Amino acid sequence: MLDSFVWEKNSKYNNSNADETLDYVLRNTRVSLYCNIDDNVSDNFQYNGKLGPTRQLWIRSSGHWVTCDNLMNFDCLLFRIEGSRLSVSDLNSFLRHWRAGGSARLEWLHLKFEEHTFQERFDEDLEVVETNEERVFRRSFDGWKRVFYGGYRIQRADGTKAMIQCEPGRLLMGVWHGRAIQSLQ
């Protein structure tokens, strides 16, 4: 198992085998700390396997291929996707999966959308509550923190809570596993 894996885009080289290469990397690379992927894959690229467990997965460009099933099947503490094409329906499906106990290790989800058309519309059964709470999210593995000033709160049946912030072009979700989010006092 590797500690980390970074695949960086080379602007001087057009990788005509990027789809096959990324598929191979995702299926065969076992990484404990972080996997950063930054290369262009085709609009037709799809991946239907599992990934992880790993601490961090960061898809720095061309994240258009990441589906709701990928979100549900990738075992990461921190998941960051740039260039996402996930829909509101996809996100509601993922949140339903999370509320049922799926993606149990997830601490941080950061989606930067390819288009700035994302609108927060949560299905009623998710029991998402808009709030003006101020909470500090702190990652378990390195202490990094972010303050959530309002947003949305969601809770699983096991009591695990999360805060969601929707900003133009992106969605952030911090999960509180008992100590990752603290109220500001």
3D structure, described in words:
The chain has 185 residues and is α/β, with parallel strands linked by helices. It has 3 helices and 10 strands. The longest helix has 12 residues, at 88-99. The protein is globular and about 50 Å long. The mean pLDDT is 87.
**First and last CA, distance:** 42 Å
Largest sheet data: 10 strands, mixed
The number of distinct β-strands equals 10
Secondary-structure element string: EHEEHEHEEEEEE
Which strand order do you get reading across the main beta sheet? Answer: 1-2-3-4-5-9-8-7-6-10
Number of helices: 3
Q: Give the CA-based shape.
A: globular
Portion of residues in beta strands equals: 35-45%
User: Average pLDDT, to the nearest integer?
Assistant: 87
Please bin the fraction of helical residues: 10-25%
The tally of domains stands at 1
Which structural category fits the helices and strands? alpha/beta
| Low-confidence runs of at least 5 consecutive residues | none
Alpha-carbon Rg, integer: 16 Å
Secondary structure: elements and pairs:
Blueprint: E1 2-7, H1 18-28, E2 31-37, E3 51-59, H2 68-73, E4 74-84, H3 88-99, E5 108-113, E6 129-138, E7 145-155, E8 161-167, E9 170-176, E10 181-183
Parallel strand pairs: 1-2, 2-3, 3-4, 4-5
Antiparallel strand pairs: 5-9, 6-7, 6-10, 7-8, 8-9
Organism: Caenorhabditis nigoni
InterPro entries: F-box_Sdz-33
Domain Sdz-33 F-box: 56-111
